[in-house]
């Protein structure tokens, strides 16, 4: 699949609409992202030529916010679109901002100012959320908690 040439000046990053709830959830499932706390009202979408090509949200939890569901359709990856969506989400969020990610994504988030923290440094709600994830370590899946201050 070839990477399209797009005019990033015409890329629109905007709040999701109610009728986009289904397509957003489908993208999250397709990407095998965390399917919890998915409320279309918390999402921003990147739309290009009438197509949603990237999504992301900030999940609101007691005592903290989590950047989540950041995904760009494979055809559009590597063009900086996820960074644009993340920047727009961060502009709307408070600090500190947390995220959970797989090991392969740690360098991407580090480039954008996030630091890996230890489990005991996380807010209580993320610790609670991480409990089932800790079981995944038994089969070799590593999930990291990251924070941006």
From TrEMBL:
Pfam families per UniProt: Acetyltransf_1
GO terms, molecular function: acyltransferase activity, transferring groups other than amino-acyl groups
Ranges of residues in domain N-acetyltransferase: 11-131
UniProt-listed PROSITE patterns: GNAT (PS51186)
Alphabetical UniProt keywords: Transferase
Keyword Transferase: yes
Name recorded for this polypeptide: GNAT family N-acetyltransferase
């Amino acid at each position: 699949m070839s990477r399209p040439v797009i005019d990033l000046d015409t890329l629109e990053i905007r709040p999701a609409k109610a009728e986009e709830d289904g397509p957003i959830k489908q993208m999250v499932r397709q990407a095998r992202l965390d399917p919890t706390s998915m409320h279309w009202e918390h999402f921003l979408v990147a739309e290009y030529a009438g197509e949603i090509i990237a999504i992301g949200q900030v999940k609101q939890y007691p005592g903290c916010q989590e950047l989540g569901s950041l995904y760009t359709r494979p055809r559009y990856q590597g063009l900086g679109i996820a960074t644009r969506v993340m920047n727009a989400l961060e502009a709307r969020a408070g600090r500190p901002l947390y995220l959970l990610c797989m090991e392969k994504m740690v360098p991407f988030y580090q480039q954008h100012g996030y630091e890996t923290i230890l489990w005991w440094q996380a807010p209580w709600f993320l610790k609670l959320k991480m409990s089932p994830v800790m079981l995944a370590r038994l089969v070799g899946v590593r999930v990291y908690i990251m924070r941006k201050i």
